[in-house]
C-alpha cells in the first residue's frame, strides 16, 4: 500500500500541486478522486458515484496486491459516503462492508509509518460511516459499538487537523439526538464546536446544523436560526451545495414548530423538489412525512394519506425502521381522525413494537400519550355510561407516566433557559393529566399532582450530568426530532460522555439540576405513601427515565408549628391554576380547587399593569404612580377583588374564619406557581361586598419548593448564629456608578435620613454590628463591602444579614433565575460568574449557589463561601422574584439553600423615597422606603418575624383605607414578603 517509499502523502499534510489534485495513487485515480469530491460537494451524487464505479472497475482489473486492495477500500469508502448522502442505505451498507473486509485483509501486511496512518484513517472512516448507517437504520446499540471501536483506534492516528476526531464526536452527537438525549447532545456539540479546529471544514457546519436542530427541537428558535445561518455561511464557503439545500428542510422544520405553517409548507416543498430531482429518497421521505402533518392540519385528509403512504414506503425500502414507525404513528392519528379505530390500533401497535425493539423508549411514551388523548377525545364525544370511570383510569394509566417522563427530560439540559423552553413543550401533556384528574373528581390525585409539581428541581453540585430521557412535542402527534428521547442508563457514565477539559466546559456552562425528591404524603418523618408512587414506578419502568431523586422528604414539616393553626397552600400551573391546602397546628383538614386559566391570566395581567415593570425604568415607575391601580384606593380595591375571585376559593376563606374564631389568627403559608408569584396575597379582597382582606384574617408567608431545604448544614457556618453580629449592607457604593446613576444611591446622602440613622443606632446599642462603625452614618455608602468581605463575616457567624441596595433581576422569559444579582462594592477584577458592568462585577445567585466550583478544580460550593445566617433581608428591586421562574434559584432562594431559615424580599420593583418625592410630590420628610426598612429590621428582631411584619402591613392597610394617601399605598408595602421553606 502507499508509503513514504512510494511517494505517499503523509496524513495531515497537503501535497497538492496547482491543479488541486492530491497525489496518492497516480492517474487516473488521483484526478478521479478529486473530480468525485467536487461532484459530491455540488450535490451531483449520481455523477460522483459514476466516477467512483468507473475507478473501482479499473482497480479491480489491476493485479491484486495490498496496495490495490487499499485503493479499492478507499474507493468503496468514498462510495459509502455518497450512498449515505443520497440516503441509499442498502448500497451504503454493502460498500461499507466490502471496504471493511479489504482493510481487515491487509491489516497485517507490511507497511511503513505513513502507510499505517493511511490505513488507520481509512479504517476510522469506515467505522464512523458504519455507525452512521446503523444509526439511520435504527440499530442504535450497534452504532454505539462502532463508535466505541473507532474511539479505541483513534489514539493511534495522527490527526493534526482534528478531522476524524471531530467526525467521531459529531456522530456521537447524532446518536444522542436520535436517542432523544437533548441535553447531553447539546453539551457535547457545544464543547466539540469550541475545540474543533477551523481546518475541519466539513465537520464544523454539520456541528452547527446539529446545534440548530437541538435548539429548534426544544423550543429555542432564535438561537436555532443563528446556528443555521452560520452553517449556511460555512457550506457556501466550501462550495457544499447539498448542505445548503438540506438547510431548507431544517428551517422548514423549525418554522413548523414555531407555528409558521405556510412558511414551513413552502420550504418543505422546495426541499422536496430538490431531493426528488437528486434522488435523495431518505430526505424526501422526511419531507413527505412533515408535509403529511401539515396537510392534516389544513384539513386535506386525502393529501395527507397520500404523503404518508409515500413516506412510509420509502422508509421501509431504505430500512429506516424508526423513521418508518414515526410515519406509522402519524398515520394512526389520521386513522383515528377518520374514525378507523382498527387501523389506528394496528398502526400504533406496529410503531410501538418497533420502538420497543429498538429501545427508543420515548417513542413508546409518545404512543401512550396519543392513546390517552384519543381516549379523552372519545370521552368528550360519546357517553361511556357505567364504564366512564374505567375509561378515565385507562387514559390516566397511559398519560400520567408518560407526562412525568416528559417533564423529567428537562434535567438533561445544562442551562435553565433550555429547561424552561423544554417545559413549555412538556406542559400540554401535564395539562391532559390534570383534565383527566378533574374528570375523575379525584381530589387525592389532584393533591399528589400539585405536591409533585411544587417539589421543585434539586440543585446538582457534583458536575455530573443527570440521566436523560423522554421527549414529546405535545401539541401534535407528528414525531418531531424533539420527541426522540429516552436515555439509556447503561451509557450514563460510559463512552457517551466527553472527558477531560471538554466535559468540564460542557458541564460548567449552566446551573445543573436533578429530579425533585420523592414527596412523602405525611407531614412527619418515617415511611409512608409517596406522591404518585405507582405512576412514578410505571414511568421509570416503561421509559427508562429517572423521575424523582432517591431522597424522600415529607410534603410539609409541621413538628415546630404547633403554637397556632397553620394552613399550607400550594399552587400549580397546568393550563388552569390548581390549588391544594392542608391544615396543621391544632386544625385539621385539606382541600383542592382550581381557577380557569383565562380568568387567572386576565387577573394577573391587570396586576402586572399596576406594577412598575423591571425593564421599564423610570417610565414604568411613573406609570405605576400615575394610572396604576395600586396608586388609588378604589381601583386597588377592585383589583384586589378581581385577584381574589380568580385565585382564592371561598371554601378556604370560610375555613380560615372558622379556625380564627376558635384558635386565633392562623398562619397561611403560600407556595405560588410561577404565573402568580407576584400576587400580593395579603391584599386579596376575600369577601364580596366588603373590604376584608386576607391579611385581616391571617398572617401570610411565602414558601419555596421543598427541594431547596438544605440537606445538611454548611460546614463553614459558625455555631454562634443566635448570638453573632448583625451584618448591615446599606446602600453600598457600586464601582463605576455615580450616586445619581442607575446603580447609584437608593437611600440618599449618608446621614440625611433620621429614621435609618436611628435604626443603625439601635443595632449598635443592642450588640455587635458588622461592619464596625464609630457613628451610624458610617454604615451607609461604604466602598469596602465586597464579596470577599461578605464571605469573611458570614463564615465567622452572624445572626442576621440586612441588605438594602440595588438588585438586578433576571428576565423571566430567559428562564434563568440564577442570573439575578446583588450590587456590592466589587470591582471588575473580582472572581465570579456574572459579567462585569463597567468597572463592577455583580454578585449573582449563581455565585451564591455554585461558589467557586466552576472556576477552580478545588472550588467550594457557595454555601461554604457565603453561609447564610438564620434571617436575611434583601431589600431591593424584585429581590424575591425567584418564584416567578420554573426553577427557583434566585437570590432569595439561594440564601435559603445556603442555610437561612427566613428571607424577607420583594415581589416587584420597589419605589424609593425619592420616587415618592418626585412622582407623588411628597415632602422630603416623608420617607416610605425608610419606614419599610425599619419595619423589616424590627420584624427580624422579633421572635415571630412573620407576625411582626404582618402587623406593620395591617397598619399600612388601615391607613390606606382611612385616607388613601400614596405613602400608604400597597405599591411599596405589599411588595414585601417573607420566604421560608
Tell me what you see in this structure.
The relative contact order is 0.06. The longest helix is centred in the middle third of the chain and has 25 residues, at 416-440. Helix 2 packs antiparallel against helix 3, helix 13 packs antiparallel against helix 14 (301-318) and helix 24 (617-626) crosses helix 33 (913-920). Strand 8 (667-671), helix 27 (694-697) and strand 9 (699-703) form a beta-alpha-beta unit. With 981 residues, this protein is of the alpha/beta class. Strands 7-6-5-8-9-18-17-16-12-10-11 form an eleven-stranded mixed β-sheet, with helices on both faces.
Write the SSE topology.
Blueprint: H1 29-41, H2 45-60, H3 66-85, H4 89-105, H5 113-136, H6 140-153, H7 163-179, H8 182-195, H9 203-217, H10 221-237, H11 241-258, H12 261-278, H13 281-297, H14 301-318, H15 321-337, H16 341-357, H17 361-381, H18 388-408, H19 416-440, H20 443-454, E1 458-459, H21 500-507, E2 513-514, E3 517-520, H22 533-543, E4 549-554, E5 566-574, E6 576-584, E7 590-595, H23 597-610, H24 617-626, H25 633-647, H26 650-663, E8 667-671, H27 694-697, E9 699-703, E10 726-730, H28 754-766, E11 769-770, H29 787-796, E12 800-804, E13 807-808, E14 821-822, E15 843-844, H30 845-850, H31 862-865, E16 871-875, H32 891-897, E17 902-906, H33 913-920, H34 928-941, H35 945-963, H36 970-973, E18 976-980
Parallel strand pairs: 3-4, 5-8, 8-9, 9-18, 10-11, 10-12, 12-16, 16-17
Antiparallel strand pairs: 1-2, 5-6, 6-7, 13-14, 14-15, 17-18
Helix pairs in contact: 1-2, 2-3, 3-4, 3-5, 4-5, 5-6, 5-7, 6-7, 7-8, 7-9, 8-9, 8-21, 9-10, 9-11, 10-11, 11-12, 11-13, 12-13, 13-14, 13-15, 14-15, 15-16, 15-17, 16-17, 17-18, 18-19, 18-22, 23-25, 24-33, 34-35
Amino acid at each position: 500500500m502507499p508509503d513514504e517509499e512510494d511517494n505517499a502523502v503523509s496524513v495531515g499534510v497537503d501535497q497538492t500541486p496547482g491543479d488541486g489534485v492530491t497525489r496518492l495513487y497516480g492517474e487516473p485515480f488521483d484526478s478521479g478522486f478529486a473530480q468525485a469530491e467536487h461532484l459530491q460537494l455540488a450535490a451531483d451524487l449520481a455523477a460522483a458515484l459514476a466516477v467512483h464505479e468507473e475507478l473501482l472497475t479499473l482497480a479491480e482489473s489491476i493485479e491484486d496486491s495490498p496496495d490495490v486492495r487499499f485503493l479499492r477500500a478507499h474507493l468503496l469508502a468514498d462510495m459509502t459516503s455518497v450512498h449515505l448522502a443520497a440516503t441509499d442505505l442498502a448500497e451504503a451498507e454493502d460498500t461499507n462492508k466490502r471496504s471493511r473486509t479489504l482493510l481487515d485483509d491487509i491489516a497485517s501486511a507490511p507497511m511503513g509509518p505513513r502507510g499505517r496512518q493511511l490505513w488507520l484513517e481509512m479504517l476510522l472512516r469506515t467505522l464512523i460511516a458504519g455507525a452512521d448507517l446503523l444509526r439511520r437504520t435504527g440499530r442504535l446499540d450497534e452504532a454505539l459499538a462502532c463508535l466505541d471501536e473507532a474511539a479505541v483506534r483513534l489514539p493511534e492516528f495522527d490527526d493534526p487537523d482534528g478531522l476524524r476526531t471531530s467526525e467521531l464526536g459529531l456522530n456521537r452527537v447524532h446518536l444522542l439526538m436520535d436517542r432523544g438525549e437533548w441535553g447531553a447532545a447539546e453539551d457535547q456539540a457545544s464543547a466539540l464546536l469550541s475545540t474543533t479546529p477551523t481546518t475541519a471544514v466539513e465537520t464544523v457546519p454539520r456541528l452547527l446544523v446539529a446545534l440548530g436542530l437541538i435548539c429548534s427541537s426544544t423550543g429555542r428558535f432564535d438561537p436555532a436560526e443563528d446556528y443555521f445561518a452560520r452553517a449556511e455561511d460555512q457550506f457556501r464557503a466550501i462550495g457544499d451545495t447539498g448542505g445548503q439545500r438540506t438547510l431548507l428542510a431544517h428551517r422548514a422544520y423549525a418554522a413548523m414548530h414555531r407555528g409558521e405553517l405556510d412558511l414551513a409548507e413552502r420550504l418543505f416543498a422546495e426541499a422536496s423538489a430538490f431531493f426528488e430531482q437528486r434522488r435523495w429518497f431518505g430526505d424526501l421521505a422526511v419531507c413527505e412525512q412533515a408535509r403529511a402533518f401539515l396537510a392534516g392540519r389544513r384539513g386535506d385528509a386525502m393529501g395527507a394519506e397520500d404523503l404518508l403512504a409515500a413516506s412510509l414506503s420509502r422508509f421501509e425500502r431504505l430500512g429506516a425502521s424508526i423513521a418508518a414507525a414515526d410515519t406509522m404513528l402519524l398515520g394512526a392519528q389520521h386513522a383515528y381522525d377518520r374514525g378507523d379505530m382498527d387501523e389506528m390500533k394496528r398502526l400504533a401497535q406496529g410503531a410501538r413494537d418497533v420502538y420497543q425493539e429498538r429501545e427508543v423508549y420515548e417513542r413508546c411514551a409518545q404512543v401512550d400519550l396519543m392513546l390517552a388523548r384519543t381516549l379523552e377525545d372519545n370521552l368528550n364525544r360519546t357517553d361511556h355510561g357505567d364504564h366512564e370511570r374505567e375509561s378515565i383510569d385507562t387514559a390516566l394509566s397511559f398519560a400520567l407516566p408518560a407526562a412525568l417522563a416528559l417533564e423529567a427530560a428537562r434535567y438533561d439540559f445544562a442551562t435553565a433557559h433550555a429547561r424552561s423552553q423544554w417545559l413549555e413543550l412538556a406542559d400540554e401533556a401535564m395539562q391532559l393529566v390534570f383534565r383527566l384528574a378533574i374528570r375523575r373528581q379525584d381530589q387525592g390525585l389532584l393533591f399528589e399532582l400539585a405536591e409533585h409539581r411544587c417539589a421543585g428541581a434539586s440543585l446538582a453540585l457534583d458536575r455530573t450530568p443527570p440521566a436523560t430521557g423522554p421527549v414529546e412535542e405535545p401539541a401534535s402527534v407528528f414525531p418531531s426530532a424533539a420527541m426522540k428521547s429516552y436515555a439509556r442508563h447503561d451509557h450514563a457514565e460510559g463512552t457517551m460522555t466527553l472527558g477531560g477539559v471538554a466535559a468540564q466546559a460542557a458541564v460548567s456552562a449552566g446551573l445543573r439540576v436533578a429530579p425533585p425528591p420523592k414527596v412523602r404524603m405525611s407531614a412527619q418523618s418515617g415511611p409512608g405513601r409517596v406522591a404518585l408512587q405507582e405512576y412514578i414506578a410505571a414511568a421509570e419502568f416503561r421509559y427508562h427515565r429517572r423521575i424523582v431523586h432517591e431522597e424522600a422528604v415529607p410534603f410539609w414539616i409541621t413538628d415546630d408549628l404547633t403554637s397556632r393553626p397553620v394552613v399550607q397552600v400550594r399552587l400549580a400551573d397546568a393550563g388552569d391554576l390548581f390549588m391544594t391546602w392542608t391544615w396543621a397546628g391544632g386544625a385539621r383538614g385539606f382541600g383542592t380547587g382550581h381557577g380557569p386559566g383565562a380568568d387567572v391570566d386576565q387577573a394577573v395581567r391587570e396586576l402586572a399593569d399596576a406594577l412598575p415593570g423591571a425593564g421599564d425604568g423610570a417610565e414604568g415607575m411613573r406609570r405605576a404612580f400615575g394610572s396604576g391601580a395600586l396608586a388609588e384606593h378604589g381601583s386597588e380595591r377592585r383589583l384586589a377583588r378581581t385577584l381574589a375571585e380568580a385565585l382564592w376559593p371561598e371554601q378556604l376563606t370560610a375555613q380560615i374564619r372558622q379556625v380564627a374564631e376558635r384558635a386565633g389568627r392562623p398562619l397561611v403559608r403560600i407556595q405560588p406557581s410561577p404565573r402568580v408569584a407576584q400576587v400580593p396575597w395579603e391584599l386579596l379582597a376575600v369577601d364580596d361586598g366588603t373590604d376584608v382582606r386576607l391579611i385581616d384574617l391571617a398572617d401570610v408567608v411565602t414558601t419555596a419548593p421543598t427541594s431547596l431545604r438544605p440537606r445538611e448544614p454548611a460546614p463553614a457556618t459558625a455555631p454562634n448564629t443566635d448570638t453573632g453580629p448583625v451584618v448591615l449592607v446599606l446602600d453600598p457604593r457600586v464601582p463605576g456608578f455615580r450616586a445619581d446613576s442607575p446603580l447609584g444611591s437608593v437611600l440618599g446622602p449618608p446621614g440625611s435620613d433620621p429614621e435609618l440613622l436611628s435604626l443603625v443606632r439601635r443595632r449598635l446599642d443592642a450588640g455587635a454590628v458588622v461592619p464596625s462603625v464609630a457613628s451610624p452614618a458610617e454604615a451607609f455608602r461604604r466602598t469596602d463591602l465586597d464579596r470577599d468581605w461578605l464571605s469573611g463575616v458570614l463564615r465567622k457567624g452572624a445572626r442576621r444579614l440586612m441588605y438594602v441596595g440595588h438588585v438586578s433581576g433576571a428576565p423571566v422569559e430567559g428562564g434563568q433565575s440564577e442570573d439575578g444579582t446583588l450590587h456590592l462594592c466589587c470591582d471588575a477584577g473580582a472572581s465570579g460568574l456574572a459579567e462585569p458592568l463597567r468597572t463592577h462585577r455583580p454578585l449573582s445567585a449563581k455565585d451564591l449557589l455554585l461558589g467557586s466550583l466552576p472556576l477552580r478544580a478545588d472550588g467550594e460550593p457557595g454555601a461554604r463561601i457565603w453561609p447564610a445566617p438564620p434571617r436575611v433581608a434583601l431589600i431591593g428591586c424584585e429581590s424575591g422574584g425567584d418564584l416567578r421562574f420554573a426553577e427557583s434559584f434566585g437570590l432569595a432562594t439561594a440564601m435559603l439553600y445556603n442555610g437561612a431559615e427566613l428571607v424577607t424580599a420583594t415581589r416587584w420593583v420597589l419605589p424609593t423615597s425619592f420616587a415618592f418625592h418626585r412622582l407623588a410630590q411628597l415632602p422630603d420628610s416623608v420617607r416610605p422606603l425608610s419606614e419599610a426598612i425599619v419595619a423589616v429590621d424590627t420584624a427580624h428582631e422579633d421572635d415571630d418575624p412573620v407576625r411582626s411584619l404582618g402587623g406593620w402591613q395591617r397598619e399600612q392597610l388601615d391607613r390606606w383605607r382611612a385616607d388613601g394617601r400614596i405613602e400608604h399605598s400597597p405599591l411599596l408595602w405589599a411588595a414585601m414578603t417573607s420566604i421560608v421553606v
